[in-house]
Design goal:
Length: 351
């Protein structure tokens, strides 16, 4: 991994030449904003080499102080850049195919130069992905979690996101950082409307339980095993290569937390992309995780992990499920019912 002094170096032929060889030309194209409506900018770099070959790369640049997701996640350092310069996290790339080639951090802005895997991204539609590809994603995710399970070294990395950061990310209230880094209007309006609907539809017993401060929600789960989590396991942030390697992009909310937070988000944000039922997915993940850990997970621990998955998934995306319910589709109604029924079970257990 190469670190440059400035973002300008990431498009400078003279600075890139040691990586790729003599460069005759670089064509740059500004790409459409990401589907998550983040404040990051994406460009495609078409690099023409003197040898006559061409290579394609993606350059992502983020201005930290104005990017709403970065600020809501408590990232004051530029986690994606810190990740690439942190030797204690190199094992990530034993589990996940690394897309990054070079990076730079320049005051409050970071830039990431990546291989262009556009041809291997999943189609942008709300339909289940291929079962074999889901298996590869489960294996890669479980491998990542197992590789850093209860890691003392990772625990010492202070810039990683904390559990409460995830629970506050899309919570049903204004976030303090919205004053200077407002949420993209489309997402912001959807969140406000969705939470209004959700809090109207939810059984009364769930509302105070789900809207408590994040620290209070997480308190019963502090004894769970912690590990490194990606934090944004959307299908849109992944690619599967022909050889079966899984690529994962977008690490601004990488953190140290119980794996249930990663899994709860995966189930919630990818609900229309799941190749199997949620219950089958969880069993597949548990089997893969235990295989990589070379140890079984105690039944009580697993149940607490899954409780946290339900709580965190709901806290982050129940507003979206409410919008789906209001749309009146069978899928939307079924998705809302699944999350609410599991929340009702938790409230009845812990009240």
């Amino acid at each position: 991994m190469v670190r440059f002094d400035s973002l300008a170096d990431l498009t400078n032929p003279a600075r890139l030449m040691p990586l790729f060889g003599p460069i005759s030309k670089i064509n740059t194209t500004l790409l459409s904003p990401a589907s998550g409506f983040s404040g990051s900018l994406f460009q495609r770099l078409e690099v023409e080499l003197h040898a006559g070959t061409k290579r394609s790369f993606i350059l992502k640049s983020t201005r930290l102080k104005t990017d709403w997701l970065t600020q809501r996640a408590g990232d004051h350092h530029g986690r994606e850049a810190f990740l690439l310069g942190e030797p204690r996290l190199l094992k990530i790339w034993d589990c996940i195919h690394c897309p990054y080639i070079a990076f730079a951090a320049d005051q409050d802005q970071i830039g990431l130069l990546m291989d262009d895997f556009s041809d291997h991204l999943f189609p942008d539609h709300r339909e289940p992905i291929d079962l074999k590809k889901e298996d590869l994603i489960v294996q890669a995710t479980a491998s990542l979690h197992a590789a850093f399970w209860e890691s003392i070294l990772v625990k010492q990395i202070g810039w990683l996101a904390k559990p409460v950061d995830y629970l506050d990310l899309f919570a049903p209230a204004a976030h303090p950082t919205d004053q200077y880094a407002p949420v993209h209007s489309v997402i912001g309006n959807a969140m406000r409307t969705g939470w209004e609907i959700a809090l109207h539809l939810l059984p009364p017993a769930i509302i105070p339980w789900l809207t408590r401060p994040a620290e209070e929600i997480f308190e019963p789960y502090r004894s769970l095993p912690f590990t490194l989590i990606h934090g944004d396991l959307k299908i849109a942030n992944m690619a599967v290569l022909p050889a079966g390697d899984v690529v994962m992009f977008d690490w601004p909310v990488i953190g140290y937390a119980p794996c249930g937070i990663d899994i709860g988000w995966y189930l919630a944000v990818n609900s229309t992309r799941l190749a199997r039922t949620k219950e089958e997915f969880l069993e597949k993940y548990r089997s893969s995780l235990e295989s990589h850990l070379r140890n079984s997970i105690a039944g009580e621990t697993w149940l607490k992990m899954m409780e946290l998955a339900i709580i965190s998934g709901s806290r982050m995306l129940l507003w979206s499920k409410a919008l789906g319910y209001q749309a009146g589709t069978e899928r939307g109604k079924g998705e809302w019912a699944w999350w609410v029924s599991h929340l009702e079970n938790l409230v009845s257990l812990h009240g």
